[in-house]
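In this section we turn from sequence analysis to structure. A common task in structural bioinformatics is to predict how a protein folds when a small molecule is present, because the ligand can shape the pocket around it. The inputs are simple: the amino acid sequence and a SMILES string for the ligand, here zinc ion. Study the lines below before reading on.
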Amino acid sequence: MSTDYSRSVLLGGRAAGVTNGALLARLRNSRVHLSAEAHLPGSVETLRVLVCNLRRWPIQLSVDPGSRTQQLDQDLLEELTAAAAGIDPDRPLRIGPVHGEALHLHVGTRPPADASVAGVPDGHGVRLRHRGHRFPRLNAAGTGLGAVLAAATLTGEAFKTVAGLPAGTFVRRPVLDFCPVLPGEQPGLATASLPRLDRVLLGGCGAIGTGIASILGLLRATGELAVVDKEVFEDPNVTSYSIGTRADAAARAPKVDLIATHLTQIDVIPVQGTIQDYIERVDAGAVPWPRLVLGGLDSVEARHDLQRLHADLTLDGSTGGPAGTTLALHEALPTGPCLRCYFTADHTAPSAEQRLHQATGLPLQRIARGEQPLTEADLEGLTDEQRQTVAPLVGKPVCGLINLIGLTGEPGDTYRPSAAFVAQQAACLVTGAWIARSSGLVTGPMRRIEYDVRFGPRPDQMTDERLPSPGCGCQTDTRLISRIRATRGAVRQARGL
Ligand SMILES: [Zn+2]
């Protein structure tokens, strides 16, 4: 079996407005070439993440080994080759000069003349320059957070070109400076480090959760981290998560174990289960009641469960939008705004079955017999247009059509457009907010920060200060919430957690 590119192709196809087949052909013909200045702090980490991000597309990928003083270490080149092969053994990373036309990305401040764009971490942030624009002096040594952000931002620039986004649907900003700890300030000014992990829970080990884990690893975080997720790691995750290989997918490793294995310097408490399972263990005194919750969940219901932990602070990361290119951070408190204030349950939205009915004209009674394969007879009574959509799917079970024709967005529907480089930017906002709040660099109202990778972060227009919603449970049930918090605090102390 070959590497499953379905999720990244779905995201690219939607953003480019072309069929998945057309995008796949375009990606296979695209060449991306990388070079790096290994002596700059954080640049090797940036290159590592960048190679893996780009290997998550079926493009042709090469790395320049450099020459003389700028030569990349042989061990590093072997490590990069192995990391790429872990994602797609059939598309080996090529080491050497580029042949033919390629998009050249450079990690560092002195790009070669043929590089289109260069990026580098500056402290916890990123600086990016297109050809012809010089870098200023860097303020600080690049950190692991800055490295992931630099790699994700460079990947975003490559995405615009290799996916062939139509004019008007994206912006190429020749100069980009961004710090996820202090949005609006120059990168490298905020140098506070991540505190030691103490009573922290990572809720959800998907695209965003593995992005957060990847940053924690590169920041060399220490302490104790509880992680909860009910699922196992599977093939489609290889091209949309920041951690995990084809071998991990073949072994169907629980996602929580994948993160525990990756974070060797942290005491990870893996809990394979739902958020509700974790809450029950908290109340039984079996696991620590978290003070801080980092959320990387993809459904409204799971977010509401996460809020029921009533932790001191919840930092929720999300990705979404029609093409999956939008990402956001939601800061939440037990006293409000809580995650219920941000995410209201929508009971009026049509179900996946109803949307399949609208998209195909297939009767709801027929859709209810989901396991039975679609037959020619089912096409009778459909319009020509509906027939065109449905005819290629004859022979497949009806329930599978919801995924095949991309009717996504329902709870429980796992076929969403998703890409590691988008989720990593959400993870950077979450980690940046954590550093900012724990060090007192940011105080005051809870924030919602959101941007679209096609346009990049815009510090002047991406942040809303959020007030609690008047009718929300966090406002109407304040006494109940403080009683639950007091009880959990007492259980925790009694158990010494
Ligand atoms: Zn609320």
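The radius of gyration is 23 Å. As an exercise, try to locate the residues that line the zinc ion site and compare them with your own expectations.
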